């Protein structure tokens, strides 16, 4: 039972981590819209999530925590997303070499934000359902 619960939350955690990383990348693209020669970047959410699921959580990243008492709760090492950044292929490059298309970036930013919020709402509903079952 707890394994299924942990797997469900692990999947949602990974999805949120990838969406968060993509949001940071899109924000950087928007912030550098006027930077000469800046190349817009992005990640493919579906392929990154698939890669994360296939590889599982890699426990080699992050800092190892020491347990000085047997009563400490063991914590798995943290996971750092190492996404494959892709260069965005522009429809039309600016004269200064910048490949940021503000309309596309804003659209992708808003779309990713909505999907992130939907994932958070889904997790909240799962937790509320669990809490209501436990209270009965």
Automatic annotation (TrEMBL):
Which coarse location class applies to the principal site listed for this UniProt protein? other
Ordered alphabetically, the record's keywords are: Bacterial flagellum, Cell projection, Cilium, Flagellum
How it assembles, according to the record, is: The basal body constitutes a major portion of the flagellar organelle and consists of a number of rings mounted on a central rod.
Cytoplasm as UniProt keyword: no
Pfam families, alphabetically?
Flg_bb_rod
Source domain of life is Bacteria
Looking at the UniProt entry, the stretches that span the membrane are none
Query: Which protein is depicted?
Result: Flagellar basal body rod protein FlgB
Q: What's one GO-annotated cellular component?
A: bacterial-type flagellum basal body, rod
Family per UniProt?
Belongs to the flagella basal body rod proteins family.
Tell me, in a sentence or two, what this protein's role is: Structural component of flagellum, the bacterial motility apparatus. Part of the rod structure of flagellar basal body.
**What organism does this protein naturally occur in?**
Proteus columbae
> Which compartment or compartments is the protein found in?
Bacterial flagellum basal body
Output the lineage of the source organism. Answer: Bacteria, Pseudomonadati, Pseudomonadota, Gammaproteobacteria, Enterobacterales
State whether keyword Transferase applies.
Answer: no
Q: Which residues form the Flagellar basal body rod protein N-terminal domain?
A: 11-39
PROSITE patterns from the xrefs?
FLAGELLA_BB_ROD
Q: Name one GO biological process term.
A: bacterial-type flagellum-dependent cell motility
